[in-house]
Amino acid sequence: MKLVFAIVNNEDGNLVMRELNKEGFSVTKMASTGGFLRAGNTTLLVGTEAENVEKVVALISKHSMKRKQIVFTPEPYLGGAMDYSSFPEEIETGGATIFVVDVEHFEKV
User: In this predicted model, what pLDDT tens digit does every residue of 23-49 receive, in sequence order?
Assistant: First the structure.
């Protein structure tokens, strides 16, 4: 048995979960926060047999969209030692980060 952890954008979480459910996979949804942008994410947990992992990963990948986002990065301002100014920068966000781990023991009680 395998456990798939998928960290997806909040905007994609419900869609990914719904599509996994349509295909018969049970999903646990958890709220999480990313470290880089400090933005909300959705972490999905899917327990499945090893032969289904590729299908789970493909469904997650298909429904996790990449987006462009403008962020303001602090840059030191030459006017003083502790002065900072913000500059807009376009970055790509979204998609999914997926981890697949072995499950040593599983019980449903």
Answer: 999 999 998 887 665 667 899 999 999
Q: Judge contact between 73 and 90, C-beta under 8 A.
A: no
Domain boundaries, the chain: 2-66+94-102
15, 59 Cβ separation under 8 angstroms: no
42 Cβ contact list (under 8 Å, min separation 6)? 7, 8, 9, 10, 12, 13, 14, 16, 17, 29, 30, 31, 32
pTM, whole model, 2 decimals? 0.75
User: Domain 2-66+94-102, CATH 3.40.50.2020 — does that match?
Assistant: no
Instruction: Please give the Cα distance from 72 to 53 (Å, whole number).
Output: 38
Of all residues in the chain, what percent are helix, strand and coil, respectively (each to 5)? 25, 50, 30
